[in-house]
UniProtKB/TrEMBL annotation:
Species of provenance: Shewanella amazonensis (strain ATCC BAA-1098 / SB2B)
Pfam families: Exo_endo_phos
Domain of life where this protein originates: Bacteria
Segment forming the signal sequence: none
Gene Ontology molecular function: any one: catalytic activity
Protein name: Endonuclease/exonuclease/phosphatase domain-containing protein
Amino acid sequence: MAGRSRIKMAGLTNKDQGSIAVVQADSDDVAGLAKLARVDIATLNLFNFLAPPAAAYEFDRIYSNEQWQKKCNWLRHCVSSLEADIIGFQEVFSVDELKALMLELGYPHFAVVDEPGCEDYVCRAPVVAIASRLPLLEVVAVEPDPAALAAMDLKADFRFGRRVLRATVNLNDWGMLDIYVLHFKSQRPLFEPEALGDMQAAPRLLAHRALGSFASSARRGFEAMLLYQAMIMRRDETAHPMVIMGDFNSGLDAAEFRGFWLGADAIHGNDKQAAGLGGLSEQAFANAISHFTLKDASVLFLEGQLFDRQSGGHHGTDSTEDLSWARRPTHYLGSRGSLLDHILLSQDFDGALAPARGRVCHFSVFDEHLRSPKYERDSESSDHAALVVGLELL
């Protein structure tokens, strides 16, 4: 089974805490939960959430006190607009400051699974975090499975570039929900041009772009599939429904993420026989495989909207005339937009399946600061949109 690493609820200053830990919610907190009909879950890349006088990546990239207050005020506005019960964050440097701000906003439960990497006052390795109105029963860092590393011919000390957080939430009588918060490698080349040695400038730049970008894609692919393998093992053990969210740094149609969508038709009949599953009917085998496949929350929302329009039903779903916004870019580099942030769900939330345990009743993209920014409010915001999904619990 994938390993688990010890954490603190914030700070992470003790490096000798051991290898396994569980964050337990008070039993009174769990017992006091009212029956839930819906839970809203969001993800947001904060873009260098780092309080002064520390610097992000470069020695001179330091917020002034005024800029920092504007960034915190923007986050207050964003979180209030999202109205989410649980929020996953990326690019967190100032852990204690984020924890305090989220407590102020009504999120008493907060966790990280790593500490930011800083040298002197320059920080270059942010972490992910989770804030919740609901108690977090367990929070662990997901680690690659050693057997999978060996099978993929990777070094035994291979680790996620940014540690992936898994939190388990008790949704009262509905049951447990596993939430994964991730931040995969960016699309920037994995290494500098100088690593290619003695070449002329122009061909070295071309080779650097080709090799470096491929290396970044490969890194994302290794991390994505090692995470998926750990998720499969966890789901096989617990059967918990899953939410996977964060900054994937690529579109979901990228080759490195294709494993998320594999179905029974991708498995050769000989492999099925060798695994001792030859006696299963095609439908039974398809059901066994689909138990572990993932769905894009925005697609499930759009499919639900289309079904409601065609059937004349509503089912508590937020209606809208134009659904194209659900696939809008979540990040802009100049005028070029990319859909980099995603929320994925296990098939428990596919309302087209019977029996589904939930359905996507809402999906929204918070991107006003990207599409029509107001300087006073948005000048120190984020370069990413926030996503929020509403899950109706059946």
